[in-house]
Specification:
mainly beta, 10-stranded parallel sheet, 33 strands, 2% helix, disordered N terminus, Beta_helix, Pectin_lyase_fold/virulence, signal, Right-handed parallel beta-helix repeat-containing protein
Length: 465
Amino acid sequence: MNFKKYLLAGTAMMAMSFFAACSDDDQPVNNGGSEPGGDEPEQTETVSGEVEGTWTANSVVNVSGHITVPEGKSLTIEEGVQVIFSTSGVGTNHVPIEFTVEGNLYCEGTEANPVLLSIPEAERTEDNTLKGMWGGIVATESCDEMLIDHTIIEYTGGQVTDGSPAASAGIYTAGDDAYPQITTNNINGNYVITNSIIRNGWSDGIYLMGGNAIIANNTFAANGYDGAEAVNVKAGCKVDVAGNIMFSPNTNGLKLSSSGQSETRGQALIQAYNNTIINSGWRRDGEKGGCIYVEKNALVHVFNNLMVNCKFRAMTPSYKLANDPEEGYADASVIDYNYYASGSQESEIVFEDESGVAYAWEGYNYAHEDYNQGVVDAHSLIATQEDGKDPMFVNFDINGVSLTSYTYNDSWDFHVQSGSPVLTGAYDGTDATMAPFFQTSGLTVNGETYTSPAVANHFGAYGIE
């Protein structure tokens, strides 16, 4: 698989603070375009209930109610298809529309002509960015495989209520949960999510409760209203997460947990490398969020990641309870050889009654009880007030973007310039235990084998272009 950089399409929105609404909040925002490939729709149809077969290239599919790919069936969504979810909901309770996958789903966009899963264009406004307008993709325990390639998924995160299919199936709890943009739940399933844009969601970008997965070369932006992460992994998963840009997740870019581990649902296994996480953790209270959070016996290798203007460093709560399958830290894990960069700007939101952290460099050097000093990040490069360790991006000013902003600008370029400090000091990728799970054997989905990116000998998603 030739993984390619795929940045946000469409017109960039004006940067804004989390609490500051712009004067034109009721105006449509081009968040990826209503016609991703620029072609006129070949056909338009309206669907609800069971769906399968093929939605042909460049068509428009309007979704008026819950849709389900039945167990044993498959749905292929070809390049340029626009799947538009009604925000009116279902029934008198206006239950957010859910896309349930009991069978298999293949979203087959291209770089020039991505698939779009969104809401009506007139409702793609700044004011709706984090409101959760539909229910997201929920792959159940019977979903054997799923491909999300060159696909834009946005404006999800509706509240799970009585009548929500995920509540009826026992996947989420009515009144307590909001839909992630993508959910998986089959410990034997194969899931490939690549080259895609996952943005503007109330809850997590990706919530993996089971399966083998490659999550590579995606762009995440504005994930989480008052909590949530870009990628959230639980027990029963074996995952490679690499080459992703994660901009302004509410809590962490990566939350890696073996919560739910049992005799049938095995320890969470994650290789997370060469990701770039920016502006993480500032939009929520508490000291739980910052960039990377590893808990409850997850066995992880987290290395060669680039954190820029995040609130805290990598955290491992309960690390003193080594190898405790309920709460502790799997001490065979390696969380090291990462790079923490800081701009000079102060956060507009400072929780004085908690840490009082107002600058990224301050959070990196804060005496946090969940910093496993001398073990986690023992060899990482960490900014200070005197040395912000500017990664020298081609086009992103680490001093010029508000720490609480969640508005992605598609002109940003996270490649680095020649002479950047992120090009030296990274892990060289020679230790077999740090190797990606699916770099050699790959994962087979819909008859094609996809492989994880090789470990790059630099920090972050991109080196020199």
